[in-house]
Amino acid sequence: MITQLLKAGRESFEMGAKLIRAGELTAFPTETVYGLGADAFNGNAVKKIFEAKGRPSDNPLIVHVCSKEQMLQLGYWNDNAEAVFNAFMPGPITVVLKKRDLPNEVTAGLDTVGLRYPEHRDAQGFLALAGPVAAPSANISGRPSPTTAQHVFDDFNGKIPLIIDGGVCSVGVESTVISLAERPVLLRPGGVTPEQLLRVLPDMKIHEAVLRNIRLDAAASPGMKYKHYSPDARVVLVRGSGENLLASALENGIRAVLYPSRDAAADAHELFSRLRSADAQGLELVIFELPPQEGMGLSVINRLLRASAFTVADEGQSIEITCAGRSCRLKA
Ligand code: AMP
Ligand code: MG
What we know:
Oligomer: single chain
Largest sheet: 11 strands, mixed
Strand order of the largest sheet: 1-8-2-3-7-4-6-5-9-10-11
Shape: globular
Radius of gyration: 20 Å
Bound molecules: adenosine monophosphate, magnesium ion
Strand content: 15-25%
């Protein structure tokens, strides 16, 4: 299959919508990451997403829409959904509601559906013509999410017919996922922060898996059973300054890079590009300083913990890691 990479605009939106209607896939930009879309009402088309990504079939997709009316058609609305909609939509947030009539492939057999109304102009332009589109991130499962059309091309060249290029994603991490099917529960931190959500939903709970990230616990939870965001290079996180660990790695002949934490929103914006470029640069170790555990910092930490398989060192501590095919003791 030839993969076309076309600039966002009328022509590519129409071509994408035509492919979606024909049961094919199209990748498109959003403000969070690029999505790999199929017609949300076509179970066979949705299956192609799982095949192309190598995605486990029990991991549900998010349905992308371009109006509140479409949300009302797909899920059972309630007061909390209304409040979240008015405060944050369109924007980088997904609400989980009891589902109406949708194929089981989209929701992985659950009785709920994740709904998202992206703010990105090109996402809206495409969705206005394509209708509700089921889409996870447009990366091969386990790889870092894509924040440029080139990232999507790197993963899917020859496997999908069209990538709509809308430039670099502004947020850079995936949407916040909040379940509103019953009492509000934050399932995944993302582009809208917990602090922002709590102002609108004061009784929102934070899911245990997210709390584990806040505590930097390595314990596994159902949602964390899959390998995520991983380059071939080893990723290690440092609480405090990463300078010592970088120096220690270089002394040991390890090709390493350090990304100091500047500002959590900027860290989020660069995160997946940094993970993706590690292998192209032939790096063996990528060190990230952890941002403060607040605001967008929580979303960044959530992704970094998975990318590093929960490898966190405190400044001043020694750690033993396997890197570049050998075991080494490094000082952080
Ligand atoms: P991705 O866009 O690749 O990050 O994948 C979509 C994510 O949305 C999944 O990993 C789920 O965690 C979440 N999601 C989608 N639908 C539901 C749902 N009905 N209930 C809970 N989480 C969901
Ligand atoms: Mg994903």
